[in-house]
Amino acid sequence: MFKPVKIMDLPEEEMILPGTRLCPSCAPQLAYRFILKALGPKTIVTVPASCMTVVHGMQGATPVKVPVLNTTFETVAASASGIVASLKNLGKDKEVTVLAIAGDGGTVDIGIQGLSGAAERNTDMIYCCYDNEAYMNTGIQRSGSTPFGAITTTTPINGKLEHKKNMGMIMEAHGLSYIATACASYPQDLYAKFVKAKEMKGQGLRYIHVLAPCPPGWGFDNKLTIEIGRLAVKTGFWPMYEIIHGKMELSKESKRLVDPTKRKPLEEYLTPQRRFRKLNPSQLQEIKKYVNDTWETINKRVSC
């Protein structure tokens, strides 16, 4: 487990500069800022069609200070695999970190075949899913990561009928050396996890899943981005953990939440978001059961 990171210990150099084309209070942009701080200048990034395409700007002008390859929606993991192979052929694979970063649509749905293939081959790269729980860049359509009861432009009138995929467990089934969940509202925790993933270079594919609240897609005021992300964690809706060589350990912010009495009421997280505005009592109870069942599973693992 990593040691807590102090704000003053973070690198001063900014790898992503002001002036991107993303929405105000964009959580993926915040997360990306600290991801690049953790990985440093010797990094090559590849992204699919997504909000990450937007952040890198139009051709010939970009606020990002590392090389970035734009690829198609379904091929980001395959693209990263090709970059890794090319670096190895050039003898530079030990000095350069390869990062594939995609949204939930490009990870849990359209890109899962390429990701699973890269994981099965155990390609030496870091894969990050920034999860804003819908296809935000193309009109807020539901994805496999959209929560139960959330309204999107392609869900039934009372919200999605299925729970979101548990990508952490799906990736664990591939036998990876490092899996973690994080949240853009906890940048020090996020930074430390990407440092850990970088330190584990040579141990195959490392996967990090980052919850990234989206003001226009989730329907909350721009000023609440950080608070919404923190409430996702504090209510237990979004557990933060690491799985290192099969052993799960909860992050500091989530450890105390094994005790359900330490969690904030789930309504504090759901109510500020317009996407949950049509939740009925039965749906609310279903979400609470989902959260409790998730934590029962986690508790069994961390108590072993």
Question: Care to describe what's here?
Answer:
- By secondary structure, this protein is an alpha/beta fold.
- The protein has one domain (7-303): Thiamin diphosphate (ThDP)-binding fold, Pyr/PP domains (Rossmann fold, 3-Layer(aba) Sandwich), CATH 3.40.50.970.
- It contains 12 helices and 8 strands.
- It has helices spanning 27-39, 51-55, 76-90, 105-109, 112-121, 167-172, 187-199, 215-218, 225-234, 252-255, 267-270, 281-303; strands at residues 43-47, 68-70, 97-103, 126-131, 178-183, 206-211, 241-244, 247-250.
- An 8-stranded mixed sheet has the order 2-1-3-4-6-5-7-8, sandwiched between helices.
- It is globular.
Question: What is the element layout, followed by pairings?
Answer:
Elements: H1 27-39, E1 43-47, H2 51-55, E2 68-70, H3 76-90, E3 97-103, H4 105-109, H5 112-121, E4 126-131, H6 167-172, E5 178-183, H7 187-199, E6 206-211, H8 215-218, H9 225-234, E7 241-244, E8 247-250, H10 252-255, H11 267-270, H12 281-303
Parallel strand pairs: 1-2, 1-3, 3-4, 4-6, 5-6
Antiparallel strand pairs: 5-7, 7-8
Helix pairs in contact: 1-7, 3-5
